[in-house]
Amino acid sequence: MKSLMPNFSFRFKLLLGMMLVVVGATGTTLYVSQKRMETAYQTLFAERFTGQIAVFNSMQDARLSAIKAKCTELTQSVRVQAALEATKESGESERLYQTTFNELDVRELAAQAIRQRRPMTLAFVRYTDEKGKELPPSAPLLNGRGFLAYDQLETQLEQVITNLASGPIQQVGYVSVENVAPNQPRFPSRARQLAAHQKKRTLVEVILTRVEDIDGKCMGSLIVGFHFINDTEHGLSDFSRIKSGIWSDNMLYTESLAPADAVEINSRMREMMEQKRSIKMQGTFDVDVAGEPHQVFFQLMNRDSNFTPTYQVSIYSMAEAIRDQQDLQRNIIMFGAILLMGSMLISVFLSNGFSAPIRELVAATGCVQDGDFKVRVPVRSNDEVGQLAHSFNEMTAELALKEKYRAVLDMVADKDVAHQMVHGAMSLGGEKREVSVIFCDIRGFTAHTQGMDPAEVIKMLNEHMTALTKVVYEHNGVVDKFVGDLIMAVFGAPKSYGDDAFNATRCAMRMIEERNKLNKISSHKIEVGIGIATGEAVAGCMGSADRLNYTVLGERVNLASRLCSVAGRGEVVIDETTRAKLSGHIDAEELPELKLKGFSDMVKAYKVTHVQPKK
């Protein structure tokens, strides 16, 4: 299977791997850190908002508890209840409101408000009957300044007073009413329109207390309203950058936000409420304020009343969180870059340590392929690479020893035979093959070597055998054996090259030529006679399992030996079979039929005078 990996060097792969690991680790760290930081800031803002809501509720209780108690006491007064009944019958409310002043000075309600941290302004006092119909005062009150009259106040209170009998006996809510003169300048921009709209409208904090008779029957209600002052917003703005406001009746009332900034938040609050189509208890969203990202939290303030849903809204700037994230990103990227540089240096160092031995092994392998088994590689360490180098050296040493054994085998046996024996292609036993066998013997060897030093005899034979053996190999023959001064060569076994009879005859003629050529330069002038026979013989390894000898046996082998004995000096004698296979390629003289030892019949033989080269 083809690898999909491009053909990169080991050093480049290691370097690339280290870079991917470092970049991956840095990216993962960066991603996880950012997520954890975002979660931490969200948790922090949620906790702050929860604390802000608790502060608001606490301040509201402190601000309204005394007033709520006064309102309860007033609605339980028998004279107030009697005046309320009379007003409902007569339609005259002066007595009701006068009795209210007599029972409980309304100015004391205002005084209760004035004693707050930031004085509250009494906006109005109203009575309604048990059906929610307003019983307005007939004349200005409160020392001539009177309760303020607001347009659409009845509309704002309609939902609450309609369900007067079924709601809580005392409810706190918020209403938005208009309180400015009608001739207002026109504001061109949306932000200025919002600012103008906020100035025209007032958020009033309302305490509604149901009036019940002694039997608990609803007689009407007392409604007291104060201009709302967001103490929580002012308190937070004193010691933090948290901005807040009150969102009611599709309007955000805030003093900590610029009108332009409040526009976007007000718009988003409207969208969320319209999408929800039901009263949403709390939520959060992101918005850009003054070019900076902010996170907005909101929570319903009057969940137990029938008043218009009003929300506490807090806006937290994400600028600091983003700056912290950017600082964290820079630090992580900086440390990642340092780590990357370090890893690259380590990779280069390690790759040199790994690649140098590998390069040496590759070079040494090339030497082994070229037949140099003496090559060795340095063992630089005791690790796996060092063990590999050590094993390589052991392998080349073993190969060198085997090559030495093979060289020795080539010297004591034919190379083709040695090759097949080394590769296990030859075993004890034989096979029938058609072969041509050459017997080449030195004529007059005994007389020539008589009195000669044995060492000189060996030197003469080595010179003779070396030259003629080379000729045998050149003609694809196999030297079967040397017997004294005789050379036995086989053509067609263990491997046939086709035209074995022609190769054998051509080889014999060349052996005569080579010997004659050698006689011109050698100190020993000798001549040979050669016999050739062709036919079926048994070829194979013969001997024992521990000592083998590849040879050929058969009647044709014996015939070649006998023909060699009858060949004269410088003559090549062949049998009838060989001549028949070389018909048209040789010139030969027929010899008288021969009576040879071991053959009962007379044998036809021929003396080769010329071998024509094959086309």
* Shape label: rod-shaped
Spans with pLDDT under 50 lasting ≥5 residues?
142-149, 180-191
Give the percentage of residues in beta strands. Answer: 15-25%
Strand tally, please? 18
Classify the secondary structure makeup into a structural class: alpha+beta
Q: Major β-sheet, in short?
A: 8 strands, mixed
What is the overall number of helices?
A: 16
Helix content: 40-55%
Distance between the termini: 48 Å
Radius of gyration: 62 Å
Mean pLDDT: 80
Compact description:
This protein is α+β, with helices and mostly antiparallel strands. Helices cover 48% and strands 24% of the residues.
Describe it for me?
There is one protein chain. The protein has helices at residues 10-75, 78-90, 94-103, 106-114, 153-162, 190-200, 231-239, 259-276, 319-369, 384-412, 415-422, 445-449, 454-474, 500-519, 555-566, 576-581, and strands at 121-129, 134-135, 170-178, 201-212, 218-227, 243-248, 251-253, 282-289, 292-300, 310-317, 429-443, 478-483, 486-491, 527-543, 548-553, 572-575, 586-594, 603-611. With 615 residues, it is α+β, with helices and mostly antiparallel strands. The strands form three sheets. Strands 11, 12, 13, 14, 15, 16, 17 and 18 form an eight-stranded mixed sheet that branches. Helix 2 (78-90) runs antiparallel to helix 3, helix 9 runs parallel beside helix 10 and helix 13 crosses helix 14 (500-519). The radius of gyration is 62 Å and the shape is rod-shaped. The model is unreliable at 142-149 and 180-191 (pLDDT under 50).
